[in-house]
Structure formats: C-alpha cells, structure tokens
Amino acid sequence: MSSPMTGARKASILRLRAGLLLLVGFVLLCAAGGNFVARQFGLGWGWAILIAVVIWVGVGIALARLDARIYFGVALAVTLLLTYLVYDFCSSALDWPGAVSLVLALCATALLAFTFYDFRRLKDELRIWLYRR
After folding, report:
1. Per-residue pLDDT tens over the stretch 42-60
2. Of 24, 80, 92, 98, which residue is most buried, by most CB within 10 angstroms?
3. Phi, psi at residue 10, to the nearest 5°?
4. Domain boundary among 8, 38, 65
C-alpha cells in the first residue's frame, strides 16, 4: 500500500511565468545589440551571434549580482518611463481621450511592475534550483 501524500505538491520551475516575458525581452535586446555591434564593424552573422552571447552573459552576471534595492529602483524607473510613454502616445499620437489614455497607461504599469517582480522571484528560484543540482 502506498502512503498518503502529505503537504502540497511542489510546483515545477518550468511553469508559465510573467518573468519569462522579461527574460525573452532581455534575450531579444542582446541579440539586437550583437547584431548592431557586428554591423557597425562590418562583421558577419557568426560574429553577431558571438557578440550577442557575450552581451547576454554579461547582462546575466550583472542581474545576478544586483542588490534588491538597485533592481527595484531600475524597475521603478523603467516602469514610470513606460507609463509616461504609453499615456503620451495614446493621448497625442492616437488622440484618444485623457481618461482612456490614463487607464491604458495604468494597465501597462501594473503589467510591467508585476513582470519585474515576478522576474526577480524567477531569478531567485532558478538560482536555488541550480544550486540543488
């Protein structure tokens, strides 16, 4: 006979997370940076990929070593900048009413703030998961 399960099941680290969106964004920015640097020096795709990997590793090391206060400070600055840009674009370029622009800006702010928070948790979970291996 099997023994009954006690406690909750441990969730897999491979579940869908909002922080994964930020991780994908970082990978895309690193790829764009590698492509940009390679194009500036007239290098081929192989060099672009190598430069992108070097940038990605550098960003990963920098993110792993960031203090929580600095991380949340940068996240706050990026979130406030996005809030302003969404409101300004909706109200001036699209000429939508101010209330609609404000609601859309607040929705974008909430989504990005949660994404930064979840990315921080995902980073800590990945570190714990890797150290267990």
Report:
1. 999 999 999 989 988 888 7
2. 80
3. -80, 130
4. 65
